[in-house]
Design brief:
Pseudouridine synthase; five-stranded mixed beta sheet; tRNA_psdUridine_synth_TruB; 7 helices; Archaeosine Trna-guanine Transglycosylase, Chain: A, domain 4; 19 strands; 305 residues; elongated; single chain
């Protein structure tokens, strides 16, 4: 009997205040299925693009791990928080004279220094594992956690608007950031504030793009989950956005699903991973072997009848 449970990928607009796992729970109820996963965790404070896989769609989520992302954020200069964002209360404050000395030129210089290929120390309350345990769990348990710097790529760090509010003790800077996977925007806020000598943290964060998936295409999750859910993106259409692709006939598809190596002159260069489709179905993610051989790394069972 064929599997009639939902199979595919959903791009949603995560609401503020909900964890990524909380989104997964809602999608399970909305689509009536247990097999749901997500790629690229967003903190509860953050909103925006969260990509979810349902059924065999979960097998594609790993290919989203290394894609670049775009964020819009508000950096508040003048105070720091333990979490580098608004999920905790400020505990360090700038000297008023130092904050008053902050200028557009100084902010621009600080942003420029954090653009390009940089070594970034992630926030201590990140999900990075330290000896098998999440860093944030160690911090919550009272440990003093120091993470190692990692090389990340910030291709764009653009200032959109700056609001000086000296009477309120802060300066708010709206920014747009294009960056590599593994970049922490709240760490950029922290480091910008430190470079200016006034501390800094995030007060708003919205992810507007994950790889080829844009916020304009994202689905809003309704409060009323009795509403019929939208169509999922098919495995084949998503795979084509993530990898080079080629199509095969039914006999070749059957061989690939059985773990056999097929020979073809239609495949890209050796060592490439490609999406292999048959009609509108995704057959496999396959590896191109030297000499043109093609063998499945991950097979997707499809009905060839």
């Amino acid at each position: 009997m064929s599997d009639t449970s939902p199979q595919g990928v959903l791009v949603c607009d995560k609401p503020q205040g909900l964890t990524s796992h909380g989104v997964v729970s809602r999608i399970r109820r909305w689509y009536g299925t247990r097999k749901v996963g997500h790629a690229g965790t967003l903190d509860p404070m953050a909103t925006g693009v969260l990509v979810l896989g349902l059924g065999r769609g979960t097998k594609l989520l790993g290919y989203l791990t290394g894609v670049s992302k775009t964020y819009r954020a508000t950096i508040r200069l003048g105070a720091a928080t333990p979490t580098d964002d608004a999920d905790s209360e400020p505990d360090l404050f700038a000297d008023p004279s130092a904050l008053a000395a902050v200028t557009d030129a100084a902010i621009a210089e600080g942003v420029s220094a954090l653009t390009g290929s940089i070594d970034q120390v992630p926030s201590a309350v990140s999900a990075i594992k330290v000896d098998g345990q999440r860093s944030y769990a160690r911090v919550r348990a009272g440990e003093d956690v120091s993470l190692k710097a990692r090389r990340v790529e910030v291709s764009t760090f653009a200032i959109r608007e700056t609001r000086y509010r000296a009477a309120e003790g802060h300066v708010d800077v709206d920014v747009e950031v294009d960056c590599s996977s593994g970049t922490y925007v709240r760490a950029l806020a922290r480091d910008l504030g430190d470079s200016l000598g006034v501390h800094g943290h995030l007060t708003a964060l919205r992810r507007t793009r994950v790889g080829a998936f844009d916020i304009d295409e994202a689905v809003t999750i309704p409060e009323d989950l009795d509403i019929d859910p939208p169509r999922l993106r098919t495995l084949a259409e998503v795979a084509r956005t993530l990898l080079p692709n080629m199509s095969v006939d039914a006999a070749e598809a059957q061989a690939l699903m059985q773990g056999k190596t097929i020979t073809t002159d239609r495949a890209p260069s050796a060592d490439d991973e490609i999406a292999v489709t048959c009609g509108e179905d995704l057959v496999s993610i396959a590896e191109v072997r030297p000499g043109g051989g093609l063998k499945s790394l991950t097979a997707f069972a499809i009905d060839l009848a």
